[in-house]
Amino acid sequence: MRIGVPASLDPDPLEEAFKFKNMGADYLELNLTLPLPEEDEILDRTELVERIIPLPVVHMPEINYTWQEIRVLKEVIEAISSSSSYRKTFVIHLFGGKQASFWQKKRLLSELLKIAEDYDVPIAVENKSESRAVFRKVFQALPSLYMCFDVGHAHLYFPEPEIQQFIREFSNRIIHLHVHDNFGGGSDEWDLHLPLGMGNTKFEPLIKEALKCPKLRTVTMEVICFDDEYMSLSLKKLRNMISRDDSSLKNKNVTG
Question: pLDDT band at residue 57, thresholds of 50, 70 and 90?
Answer without folding.
Answer: very high
